[in-house]
Amino acid sequence: MTRALTRLTTVEARLFLREPMAVFFAIVLPVGLLLGLGTTIPGFRDADPSLGGQRFVDAPFTAMMVLLSIVTLGLSVLPGTLVIYRERGVLRRLSTTPVRPGALLAAQLLINVVVSVVATTLTLALGHLILGVPLPGSPWAFVAIFVLGTLTMLTIGLLLAAVTPNSRVAQGVGSALMFPLLFLAGMWLPRPLMPEILRRISDFTPTGAFGQGLMDALGGHVPQPLHLAVLAGWALAAGLAAARLFRWE
């Protein structure tokens, strides 16, 4: 079973790399935005009193680029791929072979986790080398929030794949969810500048909790227990619902 999973993961990874749009939106776009905007907009590199003296390009913007990559994978790439496989009967055919459909699901999850790690590593490394963005001041806290947040977004993606009838709907619903969730995370209006009521709403969304946790860890602080609890709650609820509702054909 382990050998079959390894071979299946290898094949799926090659298929992923042949999808230029998936690679672009999950890896190239976040890194490109960080470097492009960080080098061309002077205000991004100026200390901002409203952000505690940080530069906007440091924890806030870097955290949003990490978040953008993972949200793209969770709400677009993963559900879109799984729904297409279901539409084309791939999952049904796998059920008649020694390689069960669950192996394909595991392979897809593994690939998306690896891609998120690659994208995050490139974002942090290039941001540090080119823009002087500090590396996570609390590395273990960053790893913990990264793992929990990635798990949360991927389980939401599984739930999206479970409840959407076809790939067109999956892409539409994923896009419709992505933009308000990114807004609530602070993508366009940093959380410290949000009105209090909006910031409290953000605290209980998966992207708001994840984004703030990333910013805390990048700034050398431990993520707040509230945000860890919110992410764990979303991951548990979405995971249970996806397991109950997921259809193989």
Short description:
The chain crosses the membrane at residues 21-41, 61-85, 105-133, 139-162, 169-189, 226-246. The protein is an all-alpha fold and 249 residues long.
Any chance you could write out the topology, listing elements then pairs?
Elements: H1 2-17, H2 20-40, H3 59-87, H4 90-94, H5 101-131, H6 139-163, H7 167-185, H8 196-203, H9 206-218, H10 225-245
List keywords for this structure.
249 residues, mainly alpha, 76% helix, membrane
Structure overview:
The protein is mostly helical and 249 residues long. The protein has one domain. It contains ten helices and no strands. It has helices at 2-17, 20-40, 59-87, 90-94, 101-131, 139-163, 167-185, 196-203, 206-218, 225-245. The chain is globular.
Q: What would you call the structural class?
A: mainly alpha
What is the C-alpha radius of gyration, as a whole number of Å?
18 Å
Alpha plus pi helix count: 10
General shape: globular
Average pLDDT taken over every residue = 89
Assign a percent range to the helix content.
over 70%
The tally of strands reads 0
Largest sheet: none
C-alpha termini separation? 22 Å
Number of domains: 1
The protein's oligomeric status is single chain
Q: What letter string, H or E per element, gives the SSE order?
A: HHHHHHHHHH
Low-confidence stretches: none
Share of β-strand residues: under 5%
Subcellular location: Cell membrane; Membrane
Family: Belongs to the ABC-2 integral membrane protein family.
Keywords: Antibiotic resistance, Cell membrane, Membrane, Transmembrane, Transmembrane helix, Transport
Domain ABC transmembrane type-2: 21-249
